[in-house]
Amino acid sequence: MTPQKRASKLEAMRANLAGEIRTAIATAPCTLRALARASNVSHTVLVQIRRGTFLATPVVARKLADALEQWGAACQRSATRLRKAARQVRKP
């Protein structure tokens, strides 16, 4: 593979990664600032990725994924507790 093709392929992969991050930001159960704090990624970087003016890195993607997984696990635990509490309430 020529260096030019290799660079083009890398650029395409990073653009895809940025698209996935944009989707994750749009569907996150929180504000952009809260996601930035939870993932320890600069709010400015997330805004730039969302605008398409900054190409994402795998490090940013991993940090965001970790934060979202933690929220997902916490939400799942809360849902389980709510269902259990709801079953314990007697029907009139």
Description:
The protein is an all-alpha fold and 92 residues long. The chain has one domain (3-88): 434 Repressor (Amino-terminal Domain). It has four helices and no strands. 13% of the residues are buried.
How far apart are the first and last residues' alpha carbons, in Å?
Answer: 72 Å
Number of domains: 1
Beta-strand portion reads under 5%
Name of the CATH class: Mainly Alpha
Overall mean pLDDT: 89
CATH topology group: 434 Repressor (Amino-terminal Domain)
The biggest sheet, with number of strands, parallel, antiparallel or mixed sense and barrel status, is: none
| Radius of gyration, in angstroms, nearest whole number | 19 Å
Residue runs with pLDDT of under 50 for 5 or more positions? none
Q: Total strand count, please?
A: 0
Number of helices: 4
Q: Please write the string of helix (H) and strand (E) elements.
A: HHHH
- Helix/strand-derived category reads mainly alpha
Helix percent band: over 70%
Named at the architecture level, the CATH assignment is Orthogonal Bundle
Rough shape? elongated
Short description:
The chain has 92 residues and is mainly α. It contains 4 helices and no strands.
Descriptors:
92 residues, 79% helix, elongated, 434 Repressor (Amino-terminal Domain), 0% strand, mainly alpha
Helices, strands, pairings?
Layout: H1 3-27, H2 32-39, H3 43-51, H4 58-88
